[in-house]
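Researcher: Please translate sequence to structure tokens.
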Amino acid sequence: MISFGPVPSRRLGESLGINNIPSRKVCSYACIYCQVGRTYKHSINREPFYSPEVLLSEVKKHLSALKEEDRPDYLTLVSNGEPTLDINLGDSILKLKELGIPIAVITNASLLTDPQVRDELCLANWVSVKVDAGSETVWKAINRPCVGLHFNDHIEGILKFASQFKGTLATETMLVSGVNDSPEMVQQAASIVEKINPDVAYISIPTRPPTVQSVHAPSELTVSEAFHIYKDRGLNVELLLGFEGTNFGNTGNIIEDIVNISTVHPIREDAMLELLKKNGADTAILNELLQIKYIKKVQYKSDTYYIRYFHL
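Model: Translation complete:
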């Protein structure tokens, strides 16, 4: 369960996801909107997961199983938790670069206080850092950081990284209704993003099943106001609001594809049916995976999603 997809990405085109944290979710945050589900291990301590050699071997194998039209635009480290908790991250990025495909990392930026983490992330071609809040109170409410993390240090770490990173830097702000979407809160976050000065500042809303059921997307008017707050600060801002599409890549092993993708990326029902069709499979396989509790169904708004089932 190391790589999955490629999956359609609103930021990166066709993205081959790499889950460098194989166990249940290990993260320094427990964000209320997280699509991966609850944090089983709340940690800020880096540790080894897969060796860089194993990671490279598995991704090579995955790429060889793809059709040419499914060749990804990026190899994206986006894990079942926070990818920078992997102590082998830097070596893994160097190994993956041998494949000649740009490397992206999507991080919550909580460990950027560590110079070693900053140096390792500088090896990537594209990095997204999370900036959901402009104050400690809101940060704790929406991201629920691990004990030992401090807001001011966290922001200082991002600013230090931004000053040394030579690749494409993005920030992402997830807006949640009633939590961080007031004009004052958005202004606070925007002021930090302005200091970071990313190549692109994304504003997103929850579009997949969140960890906390009371999480809802803000109104269109609220999102529009946030967009203009960011724009007025001279930021290159883009909205991430819609569904990415149903065009998932496949390796020919439908069971592995479903399990690997759903571990990190909830699969909407129409995308699931398209994935089955691509593999010449029918819903009997889906029903079997549900019955043996490899995956489970979750309803969010008017849509049905399939996500990885982790046994307690």
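Researcher: Any highlights?
Model: The longest strand covers residues 3-9.
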